């Protein structure tokens, strides 16, 4: 028997990261990537001091009450809408996320979806594979220009700024943004973006990219009324969380040609995708792969592991979300 801290790793992760964790902790892991129910997750978490989560395991007051030994939840994701942080603070449980390491990779994905949706890349591929490409015609698969257009970014954190830089410096776009708070002027200049209200952004942008945190206030931020403000030829990209968009309203707008196209990496009921969206030809759909490159996923796993090791062995997490409310118990 040892008195090493006990931790749970809720999903399969890189074996080398798991091996590092095993140097410090008694680890129970889910390397088979079994689909644990919530009940099974909570049962396995009981008696553990730490857990590595991957962004979809809900940590709330009920779970915390059932797991009194728990001291830290390390999310292998920058988004942490799966955590009830006030409840965690009240229970003295540290929350950490994985900011910084996935910024550029996820900004790349935002641009990939923007380009694909605006220029009808996947639609063109389906057309070709279906054998529908018989001859050239002047109006075959006409899309929307990206270069020189107006890019509207909702949410101007690290990833939003990465997208702004790509748009302003790489594609000569006029970049406008909306955010809870305005960036300092020097930062606005560095990324080449101008602050506007949400309505103005939706009215003026040719391409709208959502990259804001999903909070209860942001639920269905993009609804039928707001879609109605958008330009007829606009595109809408979402690389943040599915719940930001009323998907039925978006599908109706896409079907009606009210906006030109959308590019979605995230869905409200993922991995289930709203059938109304699946029925739209003018939407590019990807399975939440914004951060999915080898080096980036490795850096995310490493940061989550470093948070567990740093906190449980020395009381020093790397990227805490609620350090002020949590004392290290050793
Ligand atoms: C993750 C993400 O892949 O970091 C985030 O917030 O959405 C993605 O990078 C996903 O949360 C699973 O870890």
TrEMBL record:
It is an enzyme of class 1 (oxidoreductase). GO terms for molecular function: oxidoreductase activity. SUPFAM superfamilies: Formate/glycerate dehydrogenase catalytic domain-like (SSF52283), NAD(P)-binding Rossmann-fold domains (SSF51735). This is 2-hydroxyacid dehydrogenase. Keywords: Oxidoreductase. Belongs to the D-isomer specific 2-hydroxyacid dehydrogenase family. Residues 111-290 form the D-isomer specific 2-hydroxyacid dehydrogenase NAD-binding domain. PANTHER family: 2-HYDROXYACID DEHYDROGENASE-RELATED, GLYOXYLATE_HYDROXYPYRUVATE REDUCTASE B.
